[in-house]
Amino acid sequence: MDDRFNTIAGWALGAGIVLLGGVIVTGEMFKAERPETMGYPIAGVVEEGGSGAAAEQPIAHFLQTADAARGEAVFRKCTACHTINQGGAAGTGPNLNGVMGAGVAQHAPGFNYSEPLRAHGGTWDWDTMSQWLRSPRSFAQGTRMTFAGLSDPQDRADVMLYMNQNGGRLTVPPPPAASAAEANAAGNAAAPVENGTSAATNAAAAQANQIATNNKQ
């Protein structure tokens, strides 16, 4: 009786060991680890707050290389709604002669500007006009302006320079000052050269001192 019990117990124990081993092996084979980033990436969508694109340089940077002839070509996109010659008639949009430097929604008396643009206030300086041209709907939500905007800052700089030459009153700003990060990067790049020069100077001085000592001896 004892032998039979021992046999049954042995089989049961062996089966348990085999089962436990199978569970362990299966767990290792199909173990799931938590990903570092949850969710699935979607092509063409940039996460809010992410660095999908480098920060755009100030418009003053692009104005240094702006070209009015290129700007005239860009302005052709606007001619369906605007004129720019002095005394030109208004179309869907106002005549734009003299707009640069004028008050927002004020340079063409009698034109029926949209309420969001009238409420915006300010002056059509370089930065303000650049923001408007980049995305009119973002600049003044609810505006009747249907133009999608100019995403290329160089295009905006070119067309603003052209507009300014047609009755505008602005002067091209100086190049923007380098940011602290750019200044530090320039300093770090120059440091190895300066250090190398100092090391060479010190080595030459030491060699001259050694020659002078040998001559005295």
Topology:
Blueprint (H helix, E strand, L loop, with lengths): L1 H28 L29 H5 L4 H8 L39 H6 L5 H9 L1 H4 L13 H12 L15 H37 L1
Helix pairs in contact: 3-7, 5-7
Descriptive notes:
This protein is an all-alpha fold. The protein contains 8 helices and no strands. It has helices spanning 2-29, 59-63, 68-75, 115-120, 126-134, 136-139, 153-164, 180-216. The radius of gyration is 36 Å and the shape is elongated. 17% of the residues are buried. Mean pLDDT is 79; it is low at 38-51.
Question: TL;DR of this structure?
Answer:
By secondary structure, this protein is mainly α.
> What is the N-to-C succession of helices and strands?
HHHHHHHH
**Strand content range:** under 5%
Q: Calculate the terminal CA-CA distance, rounded to whole Å.
A: 111 Å
Overall shape: it is: elongated
CATH topology type of the domain at 59-164: Cytochrome Bc1 Complex, Chain D, domain 2
Q: How many DSSP-defined strands?
A: 0
Counted by DSSP, the helix tally is 8
Uncertain ranges:
38-51
CATH superfamily of the domain at 59-164: Cytochrome c-like domain
By helix and strand content, what is the structural category?
A: mainly alpha
What is the CATH domain class of the domain at 59-164? Mainly Alpha
Mean pLDDT over the full residue set:
79
Largest sheet: none
The CATH level-2 architecture of the domain at 59-164 is identified as Orthogonal Bundle
Over all CA atoms, what is the radius of gyration?
A: 36 Å
What share of the residues lie within helices? 40-55%
